[in-house]
Amino acid sequence: MNNNHLQGKTAIITGAGYAALSDGRCGSIGYGIATAFAKEGANLVITGRNVPKLEKAKEELERLYGIRVLALAADIAAGSDNEATAKGVAEAAMAEFGRIDVLINNAQASASGVTIQDHTTEQFDLAMYSGLYATFYYMKACYPYLKETKGSIINFASGAGLFGNYGQCSYAAAKEGIRGLSRVAATEWAKDGINTNVVCPLAWTAQLEKFQQAYPEAFKANVKMPPAGHYGDPEDEIGRACVLLTHPDFKYMNGETLTLEGGMGLRP
Prior knowledge:
The chain is an alpha/beta fold. The chain is built from nine helices and seven strands. Strands 3-2-1-4-5-6-7 form a seven-stranded parallel sheet, with helices on both faces. Strand 1, helix 1 and strand 2 form a beta-alpha-beta unit.
């Protein structure tokens, strides 16, 4: 396998702001993915809502790995011109790097821990816009450029949708919508040389730490230790798998859902 297939390529990663765990380790799946791609020589476009976290990520990635990073504040939300936001990110990527080879839709916000009967429309909208709609708009915006490079799309879903986790109705609905959208993209865009796959990760993140603190009962109901005996590392066990999914050797893999849950994501 040629291990430098990403050298000089461009990857867009949504939700890739810097975050750290209480013990200082990487606490963001998006930043873990960005690190894995940076180590392979890819230039990056990272997006998110928190500008200081994006600037910190840019500073660290450029300093440590010698690649170029374009950090763009972007928020897909109810009441916004979301199509223009996503299109603006794609156009900025083209202006800066001249190509888009990989699109990774990782960003997602939700009101996890709130049951169906207590969920508000605003909370449901939060999950749908930040996850499903964002994935839809970024895929549309990047399609013409991914067609040129015969690139790859990796969309993020979750075991919450696969297994119907307690207190995660909007999150699960958004994530299953993303899986359906991804399968259609595989059907429609395979002829263009674009492969679209889905990752359902389980990694210990700063967001999961906060979930444990804010909703301990929902956390106990949903989050179990995987058979592997540890939670995934955002870079080594999620980011590295994403790097492989963009490799030419995996081009025939299209429309699939890959569960990276240490043996806990078993399903028929």
